[in-house]
Amino acid sequence: MASASRSEGADALLDDVRRGLTKGQGTGLFLSIGPQFTDTGQADGTIGFAYDGDRTLRIVWNIVRGLLALEMGRPLPDDTPHHCYPLIAPWKAEEEIPKSEWLLDLRGDSMGVYKSVLDYKWIGFVDPEQPALRVHGLALLIWDRVIAPVLIHDPTCGCRQCSNSDTC
Asked: Are residues 111 and 45 in the same domain?
């Protein structure tokens, strides 16, 4: 995915991986992902990469949990109700972003420290039908190109579901 994003941060990451491989570092990891690259059968010789979507979304969820722990000063339990949307590639952003209306509401300053590698915006929602229900929406921007949207049910909200049980 980094190479497909064609961003400065991704290029730097790939250069670092190349340097490490020439020194004999990370060869096991490199060999394990090799089979994920396949010939697409196109005349121009395009190579495709089939990544493990479930694993990628688990990684996104862990990144989001870490960011929220840093921002809120407390850890977010792994079993917190959430929804990780499929990653949005740069060439699909114009088509996919409007499908998740809340992504259009992300305005203001981005919150990442190393923006060309990982940036993010965060928005909070309150359900007008149930004002005690709080939801967070985060959109990660990876390598300045790939968007990873995530919705999270705030575990400290006072909605009916949370007030009727110990956990959300």
From this structure: no
Please write the tens of the pLDDT for every residue from 121-141. Answer: 999 988 788 888 889 999 999
Q: Using an 8 Å Cβ cutoff, are 88 and 109 in contact?
A: no
Q: Where are the alpha helices (DSSP H) in the chain?
A: 2-5, 8-22, 27-33, 53-72, 93-96, 101-104, 160-163
Residues ≥6 apart with Cβ < 8 Å to 137: 102, 103, 105, 106, 122, 123, 124, 125, 149, 150, 151, 152
Domain count, the chain: 2
Give the CA-trace dihedral at 156, 162, 165, 166, to 10 degrees.
-10
Residues 17 and 57 in one domain: no
Q: How far apart are CA 166 and CA 155, in angstroms?
A: 10
pLDDT single digits (tens) 64-121: 999 999 998 999 999 999 999 999 988 889 999 999 889 998 887 899 988 888 999 9
Same domain, 42 and 57: no
